[in-house]
Amino acid sequence: MINNTIDCRFCSVVSKANKEDPIGTAITCDHWIIMETPQPWPQEIYQQNPTIKSLISAYQELVFKYKIQLKPVLIAPDREYSEPGLTRILYYYRPAHLFSKFEKQEFIVPENQAAALVTAIFQQLLQKPNNLSDFQKYQQQTSHIRELMICTHAQVDLACGRFGNPLYRQLRKQYAPISNGNLRVWQSSHFGGHQFAPTLIDLPQGYFWGHLEPSVLDLLVEQNDSVLGLRKYYRGWAGLKQFEQIAEREIWMQSGWSWQKCLKAGKLLAVETVAEGCQPDWAEVQIDFVDPLAQIKGSYQVRIESCGEVMTACNSATVMELEPVKQYRVSHLVRLE
Description:
Blueprint: H1 11-17, E1 31-36, H2 45-48, H3 50-53, H4 56-65, E2 70-75, E3 86-93, E4 103-110, H5 114-125, E5 139-140, E6 146-151, H6 158-175, E7 183-188, E8 200-203, E9 207-209, H7 217-222, E10 234-237, H8 242-255, E11 263-271, E12 282-291, E13 296-312, E14 323-336
């Protein structure tokens, strides 16, 4: 275990060495706005880029006033995928309460219309009058394409640049070209969890992965062996909250790859009451599912309990401050028909 970090300035090295479990750290969201934005991306890119800055107040209204779970992500234009003078915008949304993957709309618009398109999407989310139909001519038929977005945003944390870039290059050069156009690989801005670098988002499924290693990329991309091999890299599914994500991993590991196809949703049944800023020692959740292939539905009731703490670093630095993070395990899982 690493306790002295004088010579170890990458937070993800400490996290991995101390065996911090990444599960339960995926961002929960119902909507994604993903926009091509040329690099470099300074740490304050959202305040410094004129197009993005013009959208900030509307975004804040959606998230803080109307409590819409919307995640913005930037992707770097790609020499093969992208076109000069045009901006690609991907909008993903949760299609129903029970679901297995996010629905996608992709647009490629002139740069000077990018803000107008995002504004129209925001207005649609608020069920306000909008001109989204004006952008139909820019819509792309790409719902079949899997998108892998690797955080390489070194300006937010050095670990994402140090470990994200090699992983991005390997996925981009080795896997995207042989996918028959069914896989694209992108460099992305920060989306949380840099202590798990290299970390990526897998859409349209909405899976978050971290602490990734070259040796597991075949399994991640091709899904050609037991899903158990991905257990320690799984941060969780964006359709669920923290304790539900922990439960869902256990169900997936027991069920195998077929679990991906199941429509699902989660809810918190009970949780230990603790002081603000403290993590509870236990929680009980329910995961409801529908298996469209087997034509069955059911629920899992799951109890999650603390199983200790590990020391981790949330940010890379010359001299890092370590802090304890509670770890969890599934102590009871039962399937209800």
